Amino acid sequence: MTAIGLIDCNNFYVSCERAFDPKLVGVPVVVASNNDGCAIARSNEAKALGVRMGDPIHLIRDRLDKHGVVVRSSNYTLYGDMQRRVVAAVEEFASEVEIYSIDESFLDLAPFADRDLTVHANGMRDQVRRWTTIPTCVGIGPTKTLAKVANAAAKKNPLFDGVADLRDPAIRAFVLDRFPVADVWGVGRATAAKLATLGVTTAGQLRDMQLKQARGLGTVVLERLVAELQGVAASVVEVVEPRRKGMAVTRSFGAPVSDLETLMGAVAQYAMRAGEKLRSHGLVAGQLTVFFHTNPHRRDLPQHHGSRRIALHPMTADSLELLAAARRGVEAAWRDGPAYTKAGIMLDDLVAEEQRPRTLFEGDVDRRARLMTALDEVNGRFGRFTAVPAAQGFAREWRMRAEAKSPAWTTRIAEVPVVSAR
């Protein structure tokens, strides 16, 4: 019998911060986005105070201070390592673990379907809690979509106490008939509005829609979604992972940048990171776009949006080649005077490295590939940006603000927490 689970870490970024700072337990906590811009994670206490996802920190600072809300800068190195630990704790409870996002993983529970899966899932939650302190909820169903719905029910409905198993048709109908269609995984705002005009406002009503009607309303995506709500796995239709079409590395600066070489230092870092991402996915790119712009909300200051698109011949994942192309683009689009606040690199025309078309006048590709492998190994072992091109520099005045960032508790030996017994 098919049994798919979804384990979701509750308020994951906040829970990671609390794992190493017990003073944060029980108090309202908000984790801010890059550059300390917006709220991207909130504890239950902060949610109760009305802090919404995406609220700009600078606009709600007075309210945060009034209620004693603790704000932490995002610490993705810590969160990524804690995700690894959560997955390690889960692995023995599932035959296969598919990481869906940093705080969610799908689980193949079919080999354990003859057991009481609620008890099984609670054992998994207990182990995650012991190993990481991270609280979780688990949803179980015959399809991924139903597992997502079950997970939401497990989190929001106290009747389920953290684990909801929707394999039972009666329980499934109870949940779907009360679940807003706009909250169903894969239903966007526009689709929800179309469904509302037909009187479809719950997941149960969407489940009962004819497949042909669903395809006409929202293409094959909605048709598959309806099938999954009916208990038919859509994975049998699409067994090949869709090819990734593009990727990007973009950041806002911690302070405005008004000279070319400082901007180029930031762009150099983004180009190096873009190459690293390409290589980690086994891809090469055929086109690079570099852009940089001023703050569009400061109309009292000079405005400029510069960008250039550069074809990459041959297609490449070589960071130094990407850096050279990005420099050509920056120099061509640069304008003196404005103070720039954001820049980025976008890569398109991605293909698998082994499918890369060869060109007649290529250099020593294997030698450069070995250089990139060595670069990745050095930075992987000693920390990102240990080895960098000179163009990137070391001062990095443009780095994002992270004024309340927690230490790298688990990945930097100098910042490992020290415990003493008395």
UniProtKB/TrEMBL annotation:
It comes from the Bacteria. Residues 4-188 form the UmuC domain. InterPro entries: DNA/RNA_pol_sf, DNA_pol_Y-fam_lit_finger_sf, DNA_pol_Y-fam_little_finger, DNA_polymerase-Y, DUF4113, PolY_HhH_motif, Rev_trsase/Diguanyl_cyclase, UmuC. Keywords: DNA damage, DNA repair, SOS mutagenesis, SOS response. Monomer. It is an enzyme of class 2 (transferase). Signal peptide: none annotated. Belongs to the DNA polymerase type-Y family. It comes from Sphingomonas jejuensis. Its EC number is 2.7.7.7. This is DNA-directed DNA polymerase. PANTHER family: DNA REPAIR POLYMERASE UMUC / TRANSFERASE FAMILY MEMBER, PROTEIN UMUC. Poorly processive, error-prone DNA polymerase involved in untargeted mutagenesis. Copies undamaged DNA at stalled replication forks, which arise in vivo from mismatched or misaligned primer ends. These misaligned primers can be extended by PolIV. Exhibits no 3'-5' exonuclease (proofreading) activity. May be involved in translesional synthesis, in conjunction with the beta clamp from PolIII. It catalyses: DNA(n) + a 2'-deoxyribonucleoside 5'-triphosphate = DNA(n+1) + diphosphate.
